[in-house]
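Handover notes (outgoing to incoming on-call)

Open items:
1. histidine kinase: sequence verified, structure written out, both below. Nothing else pending on this one.
2. Nothing else urgent.
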Amino acid sequence: MALSLPAIMKTTAARLSALYLLLFALCAVLLVFYMTSLSARMLTAQTQDTINDEVLGLARAYQRGGLPVLVRVVEARSRQPGANLYLIADTNGQILTGNVQSLEPGVIETEGWTKEPFSYRRFGEGELERQRNPVSDQNETQSGENEVQAQGEKGHNAIALVLRLPNQMIMLVGRDLGEPERFRAVIRRALMLALGMMGLGGLLIWFFVGRTALKRIDSVSEASRRIMGGDLSGRLPVTGAGDEFDRLSENLNSMLARIATLNEGLKQVSDNIAHDLKTPLTRLRNRAEATLSGKHRTTDYRQALEGTITESDQLIKTFNAILMISRLEAGYSSESTSRVDLAAAVRDVVELYEPVAEEAGVTLESSVEGSFAVDGNRELIGQALSNIVDNAIKYSTDSTGKPGVRVTLERVGGEIRLTVSDNGQGIPDDADRARVTERFVRLEKSRSQPGSGLGLSLAKAVMTFHNGRLDLLPANPGLSVVMSFPGREEH
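histidine kinase structure tokens:
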């Protein structure tokens, strides 16, 4: 989706990019000025050192032979290629010798270093200029001072050291600034070009990378709108780049999958309540209606009320189990967790169900190899184990041999496995074993055994809460229900 420039600038990424670009440009400009200024200072200092060396050499020549020797040395050095500026003038400022034809007015009036760069023309440059651009006779007849000033303003720039000789004559030794200025200009152009290229590169990177990021944000927003519209099967796009957008999308997709699972569970609970709780509620109503119709004895009313209370208790247990399963599947429990001794929990459950098993004619045995402890909730683990043992006792009575249930506790690899096995008919079909842990699912068609079909559902929810798993495996004959806890070695 295309965005206008004002809309783009409202995004955080665009604002941060613009801020970084502004700071970068400011630092780059400061760097340009600093480098050019530093280069100019270094070249000026180097030029002054060169002029000082020249002045020392001329001073030694003057000491050897006076003015005649000084003049000869100046003329000799003036004719050398790439020579410095040399000038000797009389007390009135008239140029006597050297390679300088004209100077900017006022340069030789002050002794010492020139405060600012001045304009000058080398000897012979004026004649060459007139040959290239002939001038009128009127211009040729102008005064010498105006000619010198005009020529100086059109000449080169230089710095110089002005000295007074003992006879009051003036000597100037200078150096042209053309090379330093060209060097400084080259540095300035290079830095400005680098600044321009980096700025352009930054804009291009911002445009393409920012555009890609905006497109991904738009796709995430579009997917979010579809999900908010009711399409819970939709997921946020994942490109596979592994960046922060992919990590965010993966986490949100996991959250959406979890929400979809909870919604599906809520739908199943609603359907199960509508179907499986309708029968006991109808039975309660029919019993009450039958009791109220006609005349009955006091004992009949009492029996009807006792049956109603029993059915109500069973309904309350069913609702409590549903609430517990929903809370555990949502990953929340108000119950506290601590180190749980599984061996003690097995002994308590086996001791509790020994009378029940004996009454049903079932042999109940336990085998615990060592002491095992896990982080969890003792009451929840005990409830889950009780449900599994109760189911094993009920469904082992149809065994062809001697009915028996065995509870074992052992460590297998990095897991602690609590197994309840019976020798009944079991569940031979794999699909039925996967389906039996759902709410209100009962494979027994006749429904001759008491129960609501929530025991294994609660056990599965308890194992999920403890980061474990519940597996149903064929025992040949019978069924083995394995509660696998993540275990750690005891030291």
